[in-house]
Specification:
Length: 184
């Protein structure tokens, strides 16, 4: 049963406003299912849209932000103190987000989003956890990334079994359903 999902996503909105709509839909669906959001603690970009949607639907938000990013990612002011973690490093941020999650998901984002996603998928591959991982991708943002991963499978750098651990879904409901199942 999913109690909390860590979502990695951009501190930018991106160019396409539909990314924000997807973040809002995911936030509403998390709250509707009673699943807490664990995320990077910011109020800007897709992070802020996602958190605002969870709050608007009456859900729980757990924010984890390094002290040095409080002004850059603008710490979300609505996160209550017991659910707010200010860390001394990105490494500690990722550790707390990892421990508090039953599953991991990514929305569009940049290098930080990809770093966080690839780390949890790699840890799964190495047998360090068995928490489901997924991408919410209704607009094809991750298509080039997924093509690169498939090429790595074709070139025998990634075992197809490990790539199968990454659920790709076109909508929030399908994503959360996939994350509710144990990984293969």
């Amino acid at each position: 049963m999913l109690r909390a999902v860590t979502v990695f996503c951009g501190s930018s909105l991106g160019r396409d406003p539909r990314h924000g709509a997807t973040a809002r839909e995911l936030g509403a669906e998390l709250a509707r299912r009673g699943i807490a959001l664990v995320y990077g603690g910011g109020r800007v970009g897709l992070m802020g849209v996602l958190a605002d949607a969870v709050f608007a639907a009456g859900g729980r938000v757990i924010g984890v932000i390094p002290g040095f990013l409080q002004t850059r990612e603008l710490l979300h002011p609505r996160i209550p103190p017991p659910d707010l973690f200010v860390t001394d490093s990105l490494f500690r941020r990722k550790e707390i987000m990892f421990k508090r999650a039953d599953a991991f998901a990514a929305l569009p984002g940049g290098l930080g989003t990809l770093d966080e996603l690839l780390e949890v998928v790699t840890l799964s591959q190495l047998g360090r956890h068995s928490k489901p991982c997924g991408l919410l991708d209704p607009l094809g943002y991750f298509d080039p990334f997924l093509a690169q991963l498939r090429r790595a499978v074709d070139e025998a750098f990634i075992d197809p079994h490990h790539l199968a651990r990454l659920n790709v879904a076109p909508d929030p409901s399908s994503l959360l359903d996939a994350l509710s199942r144990p990984p293969p």
